[in-house]
Amino acid sequence: MPTFKLDGQEIPFEPGDTIIRAAWKKGVEIPHYCWHPGLSIAANCRMCLVEIKSARPMALPILAWDEKKKDYVETTKNKLQPACQIEVTEGMEVASKGAAVEKAQGAVQEFLLLNHPVDCPICDQAGECKLQDYWLAHQKKLKRKDTEPVHKPKAVRFGPTIVYDAERCIMCTRCIRFCDEVVGDHVLDMRERGNKNEITVSPGRELDHAYTLMTEHVCPVGALTSKDFRFKARVWFLRSAPGVCNGCATGCNTWVDYDPRYQRVYRLRPRDNEQVNKFWMCDAGMMTYKRFHEDRILTGRVRQEGRVVEVPRDVAIEASAKVLEKSQRLAVVFSAQHTNEDNFVLGKLGREHLGGTALYLAALSPESVPGGWKGDAILRHPDPNPNRAGATAVAGGELRSTADLAADVAAGRVDAILSLGWAAGESVEQLASLANVPHVNLSSNIGPLTQVATVVVPVATTAEASGTFVNAKGMAQQFQRAVNAPLGIKSAWETLIEIGKRVGREIAFAKLPEVRAAMPATTAAVAAAS
Ligand code: SF4
Ligand code: SF4
Ligand code: FES
């Protein structure tokens, strides 16, 4: 691979790479605002200016202050070039440090902050703002401008999810380019010139496509903020765990941002993965974090004489064992919302140990997603389940639907049910026949399956347990636990082992790696993906 030199370091590049892209691929950051690896080049912020040492210097005539003469004198300086726009050539030598470059970086910073309000204490971007970071790295000076800054609109509603602060905006146009180039919706544009310019929404429109939260994510400063996240948490208190989105079969890679003090998840952000989601996520996917804390099932539930009674988890496990040990024709319901590991242990208990031969898959249908679900040509897969492929592979092949299960129960072909998860493609009314047989359900949230169960045992969410999902392309992706499950609650696979013990069936897995090691289907999926 050809190479070039950046600050003395040999950096490889592919033909067509710009200086900044080649450096970024190698993990070296050249300061920038308007450049984004997933967007076209605008080259409008000038923060990425570098000195190209190997080329014939382009001498710019300038006036410089001469201390001896106490006057300005005519001289020249080497013209700096934007690293985001200049393509690398073999043997090129580039300096992104040194007096000339650092002076330019300081000057660009000063220019960008001339009218910028000192909002940091109340700005949601504080702690992850490029203006703060680069001010410290490249300017570190107090404002020289002592006149009133130009005032512009603040807290402008752009749409249902995003608020705009024009005074903080540095006109990098990343938000416009994201809407144009990734979403294909020219809903944002710029108006006015110079220090009066601002981002505007197309007349008669709102910023309301399926990827609006990404505009907040690509904004390098606090000009666009998400209504959902603003004023909820300070980012320096948050930690991040690598996750995989629950929203659909694409399996976008995420960062799960949580506050370790409260063991609470505050937001999901895209984790770059060029093969799966590049740099993006959809709004619905980013909002799936709400299920980690809302509509949770935190105690056991037992149906007694038609009424649901909350009971301690232990009592629910005991009640589950009683249901399962009596069953002769057990239905086992795998879950397209649960991990391979959970589904695998469900199969062990339900099929191998309890002899269940009627196998089904509980999966959301596009119509059963609250608000509906539609795939698109960007990221969103038509299947709103994160792990249909994994659950099916672990179960050993195609599974019947929960509608089939309802029909089998109505026809008397099933005498008990062991099901995983809350999700189903049918409503509670459509699944009403399931309430006619004893039904043990393991679930983290309230949903149609929990509402027709006889016994519900609470389990952890995917933020509270590590696991594996297989996406629609057959890629097995592992994610890590972010927060602790509420006291006493365990992952579904651990809970299934506990229930197994109560019915005298020993499943000898103590740790997640042991479960994984016993899973040939998943191993195959991992191999196919890598
Ligand atoms: S709102 Fe943010 S992303 Fe859009 S132009 Fe302004 S600073 Fe850039
Ligand atoms: S496209 Fe699917 S996997 Fe990606 S963020 Fe949206 S819902 Fe999640
Ligand atoms: S990052 Fe190069 S000009 Fe903005």
Automatic annotation (TrEMBL):
Keyword Cytoplasm: no
Keyword field: 2Fe-2S, 4Fe-4S, Iron, Iron-sulfur, Membrane, Metal-binding, NAD, Quinone, Translocase, Ubiquinone
Record-annotated 2Fe-2S ferredoxin-type domain positions: 1-100
Pfam families: Fer2_4, Fer4_Nqo3, Molybdopterin, NADH-G_4Fe-4S_3
GO molecular function: 2 iron, 2 sulfur cluster binding; 4 iron, 4 sulfur cluster binding; metal ion binding; NADH dehydrogenase (ubiquinone) activity; oxidoreductase activity; quinone binding
SUPFAM superfamilies in the record: 2Fe-2S ferredoxin-like (SSF54292), 4Fe-4S ferredoxins (SSF54862), Formate dehydrogenase/DMSO reductase, domains 1-3 (SSF53706)
Record domain 4Fe-4S His(Cys)3-ligated-type: where: 100-139
SMART domains: Molybdop_Fe4S4 (SM00926), NADH-G_4Fe-4S_3 (SM00929)
InterPro entries referenced in this protein's UniProt entry, alphabetically: 2Fe-2S_ferredoxin-like_sf, 2Fe-2S_ferredoxin-type, 4Fe4S_Fe-S-bd, Mopterin_OxRdtase, Mopterin_OxRdtase_4Fe-4S_dom, NADH_UbQ_OxRdtase_75kDa_su_CS, NADH_UbQ_OxRdtase_ferredoxin, NADH_UbQ_OxRdtase_Gsu_4Fe4S-bd
Gene Ontology BP terms: ATP synthesis coupled electron transport
Cofactor or coenzyme needed: [2Fe-2S] cluster; [4Fe-4S] cluster
Domain spans labelled 4Fe-4S ferredoxin-type: 160-193
4Fe-4S Mo/W bis-MGD-type domain span: 238-296
Location in or out of the cell: Membrane
GO cellular component terms attached to this protein's record: membrane
Family per similarity comment: Belongs to the complex I 75 kDa subunit family.
Protein name from the UniProt record: NADH-ubiquinone oxidoreductase chain G
Organism from which the protein derives: Sandaracinus amylolyticus
